[in-house]
């Protein structure tokens, strides 16, 4: 299984909200701590979880995980919505068998500058070597893109291409699948999730309070107002998400 092989090396920001926090905040917004709601906590919890499922496809909150390098990596059990980037961990000198180079030549050239009897010629030669080395890298990367990757969700495989100098380990930057609201730790997405849940709850309350009308009553429910607020706020939040998702990843 994927979880047994990989070590999570980033846990996000230092705060989060659990389901009880969302429910408490929504009830405070709607009652002021004085009134009682027609719906119970279980219904509000369902609304929050429904909001999480809707926001999931927009969230760009990254996690990082370090894994041993392989051209084909088994990601069975890896709860990942999308993979953003792949990075090297080992320096070029730390290569596995099959590496095309044992050490970065420019690294060696840098130390050669500090050798005995080095003069301007050596610095000039270093510049020439550096230019030649970069040209070689450009040619190599034009033939085979380094760290290009493709994720096969159905086959549960991640294919990573390396143009040379195979690393021992790589870091994968990915967007996880959030199964619980407490896993969302980015302040921006916590706010979006809170606002979306509140708007959905307002719409539900509005529909409940306008289900029946009272005639000759001394007081009236605020169902129409609640329904209008919920629909308006829901449309505004969805428009924000839709607009931001015009890029490959949402902006925040």
Question: What key attributes describe this structure?
Answer:
alpha+beta; four-stranded antiparallel beta sheet; three-stranded antiparallel beta sheet; 7 helices; elongated
Architecture blueprint of SSEs:
Layout (H helix, E strand, L loop, with lengths): L1 H4 L1 E2 L10 H13 L9 H16 L6 E6 L3 E3 L5 E9 L16 H8 L7 H24 L5 E4 L4 E4 L8 E8 L10 H23 L13 H22 L8
Antiparallel strand pairs: 1-2, 2-7, 3-6, 4-7, 5-6
Task: Identify the quaternary structure here.
Answer: single chain
- Radius of gyration over alpha carbons? 28 Å
Helix content estimate: 40-55%
- Whole-number average pLDDT? 79
Q: Ends: how far apart?
A: 34 Å
What's the total count of β strands? 7
Strand content: 5-15%
The number of helices is 7
Structural class: alpha+beta
Largest sheet features: 4 strands, antiparallel
With strands numbered from the N-terminus, the spatial order across the biggest sheet is 1-2-7-4
Q: How many separate domains make up the residues? A: 2
The string of secondary-structure elements, in order, is HEHHEEEHHEEEHH
Low-confidence stretches: 3-14, 92-102
How does the overall form come out from the CA principal axes?
A: elongated
């Amino acid at each position: 299984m994927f979880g047994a092989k990989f070590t999570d090396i980033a846990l996000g920001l230092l705060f989060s909200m659990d389901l009880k926090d969302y429910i408490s905040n929504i009830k405070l917004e709607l009652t002021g701590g004085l009134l009682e709601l027609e719906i119970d906590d279980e219904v509000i919890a369902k609304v929050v979880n429904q909001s999480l499922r809707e926001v999931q496809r927009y969230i760009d909150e990254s996690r990082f995980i370090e894994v041993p390098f392989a051209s084909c990596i088994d990601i069975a059990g890896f709860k990942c919505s999308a993979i953003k980037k792949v990075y090297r961990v080992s320096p070029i000198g730390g290569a596995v068998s099959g590496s095309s180079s044992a050490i970065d030549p420019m690294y060696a050239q840098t130390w050669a500058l500090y050798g005995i009897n080095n003069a301007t010629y050596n610095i000039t030669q270093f510049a020439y070597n550096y230019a030649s080395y970069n040209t070689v890298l450009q040619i190599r990367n034009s033939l085979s893109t380094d760290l290009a990757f493709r994720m096969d969700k159905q086959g549960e495989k991640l294919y990573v291409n390396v143009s040379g100098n195979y690393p021992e380990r790589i870091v994968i930057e990915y967007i996880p699948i959030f199964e619980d609201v407490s896993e969302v730790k980015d302040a921006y997405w916590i706010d979006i999730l809170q606002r979306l849940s509140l708007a959905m709850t307002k719409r539900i309350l509005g529909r409940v309070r306008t289900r029946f009308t009272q005639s000759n009553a001394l007081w009236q429910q605020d169902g129409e107002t609640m329904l209008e607020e919920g629909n308006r706020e829901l449309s505004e939040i969805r428009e924000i998400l839709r607009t931001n998702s015009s890029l490959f990843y949402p902006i925040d």
